[in-house]
Design a protein that fits this description.
mainly beta; UDP N-Acetylglucosamine Acyltransferase, domain 1; eleven-stranded parallel sheet; Phenylacetic acid degradation protein PaaY; hydrolase activity; hydrolase
Length: 199
């Protein structure tokens, strides 16, 4: 993966975390156990510290960055969907930030919250635990049901399993020129859960 030491600070990736080879890690970045970092994600620890705690995932084309002296953190089992931007904020334990959402400086997404896709979370925003956060600017609309939280948790578990699958079997290769006869589907391999989940 493109990994760059800056001002003497080298990114840290736990041996059980999977970081896609196209993701970029710069400077003060700490990726914890069992994390997944997707293709083309950018983790820029060139001003503030970037932290993914145990079991968190940061999906493809996401950006994490922050101002000098601050931390941008995804807490344990946090789940960040494709294309989201996190800047100087904190995503609480077991929370989900949906696709293409933006969470700004000093915002704190409380544990077990879901931030809807494309939401814009203003600087300094706070909310209660287990809230549904939607809109631009984002507002906490209601309390999530336990079933909705369980749905989120299943999706996060799939990304934790994906990290293990990638560590075990992902290899760079050349494409085939045609599909094989009776080509199996990903779910037929026995490796992927039968129910899909994205964010």
């Amino acid at each position: 993966m493109p990994c760059y030491r800056l001002d003497g600070l080298t990114p840290v990736v736990h041996p059980t975390a999977y970081v896609h080879p196209s993701a970029v890690l710069i400077g003060d970045v700490i990726v914890g156990p069992g994390c997944y970092v997707g293709p083309l994600a950018a983790l820029r620890g060139d001003f503030g510290r970037i932290v993914l705690e145990e079991g968190a995932n940061l999906q493809d084309t996401c950006v994490m960055h922050g101002f000098p002296g601050g931390d941008t953190v995804i807490e344990r089992n946090g789940h960040v969907g494709h294309g989201a931007v996190l800047h100087g904020c904190r995503v609480g334990a077991d929370a989900l930030v949906g696709m293409n959402a933006v969470v700004m400086d000093g915002a704190h997404i409380a544990p077990r919250c879901i931030v809807a896709a494309t939401a814009f979370v203003k600087a300094g925003f706070t909310c209660e635990a287990q809230s549904l956060v939607v809109g631009s600017p984002a507002q906490a609309k209601r309390t999530l049901s336990d079933e909705e939280v369980a749905w989120k948790q299943r999706g996060t578990q799939e990304y934790q399993a994906l990290a293990r699958r990638c560590m075990a079997s992902m290899v760079e290769c050349s494409p085939l020129s045609a599909a094989e006869p009776a080509r199996p589907r990903m779910g037929d391999t026995g490796l992927r859960p039968k129910t899909g989940h994205g964010a």
